Amino acid sequence: MELFKYLFKTKEYARLAELLWVDKVSGSVNELAHLADLSYSTAHEELQRMKSLGLVKMQRVGKATLYSSALTEVESKVVKNLFSKTNLKRKTVSFADYNLPLLGDFNELLTDNQLEPEELLVKSVKSAKKNATLLRVLPLMLKKMGAELNLYQLVYWAKRYEVNRELGFLLDLTAALTKNTKFSKLAKQFKDKRWSKPEYFFESDSNLSGFQEQLTEKNTPELAKKWYLKLNMGLDSFQSLYSKYEKAYS
After folding, report:
1. pLDDT tens digits, 213-231
2. Longest dimension (CA), the chain
3. pTM above the 0.85 mark?
4. In the chain, at which end, N or C, are there fewer CB atoms within 10 A of the end residue's CB?
5. Is the CB of residue 192 less than 8 Å from the CB of residue 183?
6. Residues 6+ apart with CB under 8 A from 172
């Protein structure tokens, strides 16, 4: 579209604008630079220019400075309509595309619009904290997505959904099941040396005590312990399901 060539220097500049104004992403200069495939200095300069025009706003969250859209609702609709006529966006998918076994109608994810693979994966991990069956089938979904996922997208969404260790565990688990070391390399990016206290993977387990707590401690696989996670699911439960359905997700 010629209008885009006039409005934006490159497709990367346009992607930065789309992230802020259409996708409503809020992030630091470093995060937005990686997501838009721009250098830090270029992204910083462009964000400052947007801010001077009142198009983005800045907010301090802890030690971080986050940038987000400052457009009005009317302006957002106009911009969204403009971007809808381009093909700048990366490939998008939906949860239903993967047709995962055993789940039935998983409304929490099936009602989502099309998302980029990295966000869908991270959101699925977040949902798996409430659903053991979903966790067991996620390696099949990840295998289907492939290991060529965008690391910066994964890091961004894992941080936003607060599932760094859970995503790291899933990546490591998928590497063990598929024998694909690329997933292990991705997993390493989510390790945090500050972790010292194990946490329950499933939200419903947070109040376990007595025998149930001991059982969970006993059945937690070593791979989960590596990520300071506890869950009452042995590695064999993942392996048996994966072996049964792996050919369908090649």
Report:
1. 899 989 999 999 999 999 9
2. 67
3. no
4. C
5. no
6. 183, 184, 187, 223, 226, 227
